[in-house]
Amino acid sequence: MPVQAEQGRRPLGRVLLTGGTGMVGSSVLSALRNADSASAILSLSRRPSGYKHSKLTEVAFSEFGDAEAVTPHVAGIDTVSHCLATYSNCVSREAYEEITVNWLEALLHACETASSSMTFCLFSAQGARPDRGGPSFALKIKGKAETELFASTIARKFAFWPDYIAPTGSRDGWKMADHLLVPLQRLVPSIGVTYNELAISMLKTATGDPRQSAVLENGELRAVLG
């Protein structure tokens, strides 16, 4: 689904994408390639995506926790889409916090150093707790990351809280629950969004949301789709 330029919307301009080879990030990358208002896409990733496009530049990058290493890549950027994430059950708590919080802090510092007059979109999680409460350490850490984002001097900042995210395309990599939930989400769209819908909601928020900061939960993500 192309993301067309619309009257009254701000352009995406030069976009920095992280996590472009993950499930959400790859959907955002696909949407960006079809977005009229994205003039250039710089993807920082640990491995190539396999995409080829005239406005896409991919940089093999592993120093996400080093603000000085990140800073040259954010010069002239108008929109940041930070989709770099990992599953909490695949790494230790310490590694999860490093990836989720420390790497975000480095990117935020680099953005503030280069130019804080940009739009920053953070792929977060439903129930992330800025007060770091609740039983889930993953949601506490996600909440800590959001706190860092909203405390930054970046001009516009948004966090996205989808409910169930339904995979699109091939069934390769589907979890057991997806075989039940994907058909259910098609019948009852309000229980979640697809990866492609989440990507389009993120881009539409970046270009059209009049607020300076917001957390968008699932219902608002669906409303943005129209």
UniProtKB/TrEMBL annotation:
- Primary place of residence? membrane
Q: Where in the cell is it found?
A: Membrane
Boundaries of each NAD-dependent epimerase/dehydratase domain copy?
A: 15-121
Pfam family for this entry, one: Epimerase
Which branch of life, at top level? Bacteria
Could you identify this protein by its name? NAD-dependent epimerase/dehydratase family protein
Organism, by scientific name, is Ruegeria haliotis
